[in-house]
């Protein structure tokens, strides 16, 4: 049986940021209000497109794996903020990294997107349909934000992460997974003013990210916890077998609730929401990279990951890390310089939202 081993990992973090103190210049809030309710202290704002974020993360993952784009059979991009709908954004990433002839596809499961994409790519490798895939999660969530609304304006950020999956005889990679969708209350988390249900001949105003925080909290904790239980059962593992928890970085309170339900110690949990905010599908991809970089993930670590997003999608995965935790080659890709601050990058959008 073939497995889909993770052999490369890479990320792309935009340089411009907005701190909680800075965002208080836009909406009525302060650092204490944001940090105590969410765990967020800053978020990044991209000066480039989703495709560019994804390209940098993918190239750095390929460098890490010691591969070139031409070695790849599939480029799979998880995003709910594509640069273009038609053609798909993955096709531009495929072109940018030189993955000539590789299949290229976008997938949208919102915040659960990276784990959904991991399962899809892993299945193709394990059935022998392909040998190598680059799985990317990239988001420009700040593009959707209505800066006149405090509850959503403080939450989201931009960024990208990626992994390279390769066929291997070694039992590693994604070994158990549970994905699903609870559509009963899908309207508690959605983006208005976007999509072909709209009348394109009428002005629609700025996009608006709508969510009901308390209900989302309850459903997120329940959905992710149950999915983790299913995955542990599939993998025939106990909670004591888990070395690292890499959860979706949406809210520190949700992370802590999942941690408590799984009875996992603080030192085993990857948390970076304080630096980046909620980057939707990209949160787990970025957190996975940083967990390797900071030594939290070690050779042959047992990793549990869980996510919850609009739809209401949910996912949990058990990942067995391989033996290598250092890149074969250093990252070669980076974003072009940014000569603006985070506040300067969003100034036009802020003005438009306040006028709407």
Automatic annotation (TrEMBL):
<feature type="region of interest" description="ACP-binding">
    <location>
        <begin position="249"/>
        <end position="253"/>
    </location>
</feature>
<keyword id="KW-0444">Lipid biosynthesis</keyword>
<keyword id="KW-0275">Fatty acid biosynthesis</keyword>
<dbReference type="InterPro" id="IPR013751">
    <property type="entry name" value="ACP_syn_III_N"/>
</dbReference>
<dbReference type="InterPro" id="IPR016039">
    <property type="entry name" value="Thiolase-like"/>
</dbReference>
<keyword id="KW-0808">Transferase</keyword>
<comment type="similarity">
    <text>Belongs to the thiolase-like superfamily. FabH family.</text>
</comment>
<dbReference type="InterPro" id="IPR013747">
    <property type="entry name" value="ACP_syn_III_C"/>
</dbReference>
<keyword id="KW-0276">Fatty acid metabolism</keyword>
<dbReference type="GO" id="GO:0033818">
    <property type="term" value="F:beta-ketoacyl-acyl-carrier-protein synthase III activity"/>
</dbReference>
<feature type="domain" description="Beta-ketoacyl-[acyl-carrier-protein] synthase III C-terminal">
    <location>
        <begin position="232"/>
        <end position="321"/>
    </location>
</feature>
<keyword id="KW-0614">Plasmid</keyword>
<feature type="active site">
    <location>
        <position position="278"/>
    </location>
</feature>
<dbReference type="GO" id="GO:0004315">
    <property type="term" value="F:3-oxoacyl-[acyl-carrier-protein] synthase activity"/>
</dbReference>
<keyword id="KW-0443">Lipid metabolism</keyword>
<protein>
    <recommendedName>
        <fullName>Beta-ketoacyl-[acyl-carrier-protein] synthase III</fullName>
        <ecNumber>2.3.1.180</ecNumber>
    </recommendedName>
</protein>
<comment type="subunit">
    <text>Homodimer.</text>
</comment>
<dbReference type="Pfam" id="PF08545">
    <property type="entry name" value="ACP_syn_III"/>
</dbReference>
<dbReference type="Pfam" id="PF08541">
    <property type="entry name" value="ACP_syn_III_C"/>
</dbReference>
<feature type="domain" description="Beta-ketoacyl-[acyl-carrier-protein] synthase III N-terminal">
    <location>
        <begin position="106"/>
        <end position="182"/>
    </location>
</feature>
<dbReference type="GO" id="GO:0006633">
    <property type="term" value="P:fatty acid biosynthetic process"/>
</dbReference>
<feature type="active site">
    <location>
        <position position="248"/>
    </location>
</feature>
<dbReference type="InterPro" id="IPR004655">
    <property type="entry name" value="FabH"/>
</dbReference>
<dbReference type="GO" id="GO:0005737">
    <property type="term" value="C:cytoplasm"/>
</dbReference>
<comment type="pathway">
    <text>Lipid metabolism; fatty acid biosynthesis.</text>
</comment>
<keyword id="KW-0963">Cytoplasm</keyword>
<comment type="function">
    <text>Catalyzes the condensation reaction of fatty acid synthesis by the addition to an acyl acceptor of two carbons from malonyl-ACP. Catalyzes the first condensation reaction which initiates fatty acid synthesis and may therefore play a role in governing the total rate of fatty acid production. Possesses both acetoacetyl-ACP synthase and acetyl transacylase activities. Its substrate specificity determines the biosynthesis of branched-chain and/or straight-chain of fatty acids.</text>
</comment>
<keyword id="KW-0511">Multifunctional enzyme</keyword>
<keyword id="KW-0012">Acyltransferase</keyword>
<feature type="active site">
    <location>
        <position position="111"/>
    </location>
</feature>
């Amino acid at each position: 049986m073939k497995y889909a081993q993770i052999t490369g990992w890479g990320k792309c973090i935009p340089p411009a940021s907005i701190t909680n103190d800075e965002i208080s210049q836009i909406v009525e809030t302060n650092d204490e209000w944001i940090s105590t309710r969410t765990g967020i202290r800053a978020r990044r704002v991209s000066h480039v497109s989703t495709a560019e974020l994804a390209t940098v993360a993918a190239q750095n993952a390929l460098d890490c794996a010691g591969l070139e784009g031409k070695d790849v059979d599939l480029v799979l991009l998880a995003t709910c903020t594509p640069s273009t709908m038609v053609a798909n954004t993955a096709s531009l990433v495929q072109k940018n990294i030189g993955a000539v002839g590789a299949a290229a596809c976008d997938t949208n499961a919102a915040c659960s997107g990276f784990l959904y994409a991991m399962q899809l790519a892993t299945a193709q490798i394990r059935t022998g349909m392909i040998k190598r895939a680059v799985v990317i999660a990239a988001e420009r969530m700040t593009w959707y934000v209505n800066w006149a609304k405090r509850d959503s304006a403080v939450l989201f950020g931009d960024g990208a992460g990626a992994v390279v999956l390769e066929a291997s005889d070694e039992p590693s990679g994604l070994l158990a997974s549970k994905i699903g969708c609870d559509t009963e209350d899908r309207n508690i988390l959605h983006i208005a003013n976007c999509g072909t249900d709209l009348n394109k001949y009428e002005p629609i105003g700025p996009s608006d990210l709508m969510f009901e925080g308390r209900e989302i909290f309850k459903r997120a904790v329940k959905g992710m916890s149950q999915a983790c239980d299913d995955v542990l059962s599939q993998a025939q593992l106990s909670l004591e077998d888990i070395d690292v928890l890499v959860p979706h970085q949406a809210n520190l309170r949700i992370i802590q609730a999942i941690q408590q339900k799984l009875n996992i110690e603080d030192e085993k949990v990857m948390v970076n929401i304080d630096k980046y905010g909620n980057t939707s599908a990209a949160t787990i991809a970025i957190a996975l990279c940083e967990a390797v970089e900071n030594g939290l993930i070690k050779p042959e670590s047992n990793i549990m990951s869980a996510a919850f997003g609009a739809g209401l999608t949910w996912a949990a995965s058990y990942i067995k890390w391989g033996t290598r935790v250092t890149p074969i080659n250093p990252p070669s890709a980076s974003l072009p310089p940014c000569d603006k601050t985070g506040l300067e990058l969003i100034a036009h959008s802020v003005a438009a939202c306040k006028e709407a």
